[in-house]
Amino acid sequence: MLYGKEHVQRYRETDGAEGHDWNNTTVLLLTTKGRKSGKPYTTPLIYQPHGESYVVVASKGGDPDHPDWYKNLQVNPEVEVQIKGDTFRAATRTAGSQERPELWRLMTAAWPDYDEYTKKTDREIPIVVLEPAR
């Protein structure tokens, strides 16, 4: 099973032929700029399309702290996204309270474990909207 750096490498080498479809869901590659280092960091994340945008969840498996990629985009909200062979720049924002319930349902339909992750942490797990800058 692909995971972490190997997942990113195989995804890039095959334009997502390996790695996009993963454990009965879909994965994109999100590249953020390190908030301290300024270096690029790429993370494979479960996603779902929503209108012209894409949605990801900053769950970190229910960890009490936000994932590093989410902390990075809070400082540098411009990211690079790869979906299969398509790579593009995107602006990011955390979903607001009005849209959150709909987006949470969308994402838990794609990965039901998100509901379990909420039981492991006191933090509200952020839902991030990726808006392509095409």
UniProtKB/TrEMBL annotation:
GO cellular component term of the entry, any: plasma membrane
Reaction(s) catalysed (UniProt annotation): oxidized coenzyme F420-(gamma-L-Glu)(n) + a quinol + H(+) = reduced coenzyme F420-(gamma-L-Glu)(n) + a quinone
Alphabetical list of InterPro entries matching this protein: F420H2_quin_Rdtase, Split_barrel_FMN-bd
Lineage top rank: taxon: Bacteria
Coiled coil: none
GO molecular function: coenzyme F420 binding; oxidoreductase activity
PANTHER family given in the database record: F420H(2)-DEPENDENT QUINONE REDUCTASE RV1261C
Family: Belongs to the F420H(2)-dependent quinone reductase family.
Protein name: Nitroreductase
Source organism of the structure: Nonomuraea glycinis
UniProt lineage: Bacteria, Bacillati, Actinomycetota, Actinomycetes, Streptosporangiales
